[in-house]
Design goal:
heterodimer; A: alpha+beta; 11 helices; globular; B: 103 residues; mainly alpha
């Protein structure tokens, strides 16, 4: 038995709500299958399961659940239905594997995922005084981390205050950076969820409709956290785009309209290639260390109609031929705006790429999306005076920028990346 | 000469009104929040409708599929307003019988 957990669909997600199950208890599921729909502030996301087996004990719909909460259990093929005595101990380890450990997770690292999710759900039902519950929410203290001193182990206001004052030490001692913040986000998630779950007398939470305000708040929280924790450095390089745009124009004249490429496809492919040429930019900073990724799952920043931003992964951007990459990009944009993003697309990005496009400013210096360690930005392509072999030309130029995490790389590496990116874009026919 | 625009023999003739309606319908498919009544047909389109390059490509594709007209990238610059798009498409439809609207 393995727990199938609420994934962290981005660093800015703390809770989600099941709105649909595509399976019923006892169904056989296969790795990668979409089994449920979870509503988040980013809209409805198709959640994939990451192992083969028989699914059971489905969590109820329309209840806000914190990241890491159990959505279901999956029994591996051939595994007995009845649980052996020794099995419970093994579940904690299995839980991590059930949902592919979300690398983007604010919530999954080290500290809070100590116990099986079930423990936390039970804890959310713990008795606590209303004052304690309210204060826990304010202080972002999870009730399940507390020892209650009230009647029947109920948590009192004093317990929350005491825990809060001790927390600084706990967080600092636990691990640095992202992991420690993960703990506090998780606490916030649990504290938020504690209200509706523990107090059925309160009105049931409505299914969240898309709310630009909520999304703005979530983005703000994630970015504030990024700025607090990540020692950013910034570089930029003007990239001549004559060759790339000429190549693109010739290509687009020769193909039907539905096979036209956008400059963004070229930029993404060039970024992916260049990222693999230098160390320290593609991957995640987790548990106090940089873990490089072998493939570039480019989180493409997509602006949503009505406000907000989402950066789902374009998987394996380094290997995709341009037509395929363009189709994947079009699909990603469309699904980001009208629904149908998959959970893996929100948990997998190893880097973020933002291209402001024709209506944008000339340069962008982005905020890194933790636990990623880099963000590549492109401004609007504009004609500039360009000196080439002693002559001044009119040249279409795009300002390429890199925001990177100093814990994983330095300016020399970043400069090498931008130089490689520029070189890639001078030979568009090889992309 | 009427405002009717030649269409395929089997299809109903495409009037200027129908053409304009089709232009707007394709826009709405990409920008569902679009309120046609608020859209000034003689003012710059992309400033009013908030279309990024991916949106614009989808709009172009929508017009292409609706009207069977090829719209080369080199012509994008002519498509500044709804009026301009209607005029452009009418011009492309007129010289020869239009291909079927469905694709």
């Amino acid at each position: 038995m393995t727990d199938f957990l609420m994934p962290a669909l981005g660093a800015d997600m703390t809770t989600g709500e099941l709105v649909q199950w595509h399976v019923k208890p006892g169904d056989t599921v296969r790795r990668g299958a979409v089994v449920a729909v979870v509503e988040t502030h980013k809209g409805a996301i198709d959640v994939e399961v990451f192992l083969d087996g028989v699914i059971d004990e489905l969590a109820p719909l329309h209840v806000p659940l914190p990241v890491g909460a159990r959505l279901a259990r999956v029994r591996a093929p051939g595994q007995a239905g009845a649980e052996g005595a020794g099995q419970v101990a093994a579940e904690g380890a299995g839980a991590a594997a059930a949902v592919r450990r979300p690398p983007v997770s604010a919530a999954s690292p080290a500290v809070p995922v100590a116990g099986p999710a079930a423990t936390r759900i039970d804890a959310l039902r713990r008795k606590a005084s209303p004052a304690a519950r309210r204060r826990a929410r304010e202080l972002q203290v999870a009730l399940d981390t507390l020892a209650g001193t009230g009647a029947g182990g109920a948590i009192r206001l004093a317990d929350v205050e005491r825990a809060h004052h001790g927390l600084g030490d706990v967080a600092a001692g636990a691990s640095e950076g992202v992991a420690a913040e993960g703990a506090s986000v998780e606490r916030a998630a649990a504290a938020t969820a504690a209200g509706p779950i523990t107090a059925p007398a309160e009105p049931a939470a409505k299914a969240p409709a898309f709310d630009p305000g909520a999304m703005r708040l979530a983005i703000g929280n994630a970015m504030a956290r990024s700025k607090r924790e990540i020692p950013h450095y910034y570089l930029s390089e003007p990239v001549p785009m004559r060759r790339a745009l000429d190549w693109l124009r010739a290509h687009n004249e020769a193909v039907p309209v539905n096979q036209r490429l956008l400059p963004a496809a070229l930029l993404l492919k060039a970024v992916a290639r260049a990222l693999l040429a230098v160390p320290g930019l593609n991957g995640h900073h987790v548990d106090g260390a940089f873990k490089p990724a072998a493939a570039v799952h480019a989180g493409v920043a997509i602006r949503l109609r009505g406000g907000g931003l989402i950066a789902p992964a374009l998987h394996d951007a380094q290997d995709q031929p341009l037509p395929q990459l363009m189709a994947a990009l079009a699909s990603l944009v469309q699904r980001a705006r009208s629904g149908g993003l998959r959970s893996s697309e929100l948990t997998d990005p190893t880097v973020t790429v933002t291209a402001l496009g024709e209506q944008g400013a000339t340069a962008v210096f982005g905020v890194i999306h933790p636990p990623q360690v880099a963000l590549v930005g492109f401004g609007r392509v504009q004609e500039r005076a360009w000196v080439d072999e002693g002559r001044v030309l009119a040249m279409p130029v795009v300002e390429a920028s890199l925001s990177a995490d100093h814990r994983a790389s330095d300016g020399l590496t970043g400069s090498a990346f931008l130089a490689e990116l520029c070189a890639q874009l001078q030979q568009p026919e090889t992309l | 000469m009427t405002t009717d625009i030649p269409a395929t023999p089997n299809a109903r003739p495409l009037t200027a009104d129908a053409l304009r309606a089709g232009v707007l319908a394709a826009l709405r498919e990409v920008a569902p929040e679009l309120d046609s009544a608020q859209l000034a047909p003689d003012r710059p389109l992309r400033r009013q409708v908030d279309l990024d390059s991916m949106d614009w490509l989808r709009v172009i594709l929508g017009w292409h599929e609706r009207f069977g007209v090829d719209i080369p990238e080199a012509d994008y610059g002519q498509l500044v307003s709804v009026d301009a798009v209607v005029g452009y498409l009418a011009g492309r439809l007129r010289p020869e019988p239009a291909r079927p609207v469905v694709t």
